Every structure is written in C-alpha cells, then in structure tokens.
Amino acid sequence: MTRNIAMKRNDPLTQQLVDNASAPKARPFGLSRFLYANFFRRQAVFVGTTLLAAAIGTGVYDWAFESAWAWHNKGKLYNDIIGRYPGLPPNTEPEGGEEDEAAAEDEE
Question: Is residue 97 in a domain?
C-alpha cells in the first residue's frame, strides 16, 4: 500500500524511501559479524565479555601509568633513595636488605 501511495505522489524523497526499503540488506563487515555472533548475541556471554574486558583494561591501564610514573620520577622514589640514608628506623628497609638479614641471624 505504501508503494502505491508513493507512486501516486511522485515525491522523489518518498520514492527513494520506498526503493531503499525493498532493496536487499547489506551484510555487515566480517569483524562486526564475528563479534556479534560470538560475543554479543546472548546476554550472558555479552556480560561476561564486558566484565573480562573491563578487568583486563584496568590492569593494562594501571600497568601503563605506573610504568610511566616510575620512569618520570626515577631517582626520586622511595625504593631509589632508600640506600642513601643510613640508620633508618626499624622496618623501613626494603625486604631482603642487609640489615634485615643481620637482625634475623642475631635473633637465631
């Protein structure tokens, strides 16, 4: 019925809409079709994929910015300067330090 109305009106826009409606649907690209078929078609798989991607993305984001921060502040961070100051209070040496080993031997 829409087609008959469009033909009677001779309106180019309406005619274009009618022609596009009857045209065959274009198939989606390979990647989008793959993603939809494997990850987005069922809700449970979609939610699981989203949570997994968020967890991995958070880890990558954290690692990247921690690395950039450490590189930019090299020589200023606690682990870099701990050896410059002798006689620090107890339990401030990084694990595995010489003083910790000597204290452990004395306790035995």
Answer: no
How many alpha carbons fall within 13 Å on the CB side of residue 103?
9
Determine, yes or no, domain membership for 47: no
Residue ranges of alpha helices (H) inside 1-108 are: 2-9, 12-22, 30-35, 43-72, 78-81, 98-107
Q: How many domains does the chain have?
A: 1
Q: Quote the pLDDT of residue 52.
A: 96
Does any domain span residue 31? yes
Q: Which domain holds residue 7?
A: 1-41
Among 7-11, 26-30, 58-62, 104-108, top mean pLDDT goes to 58-62
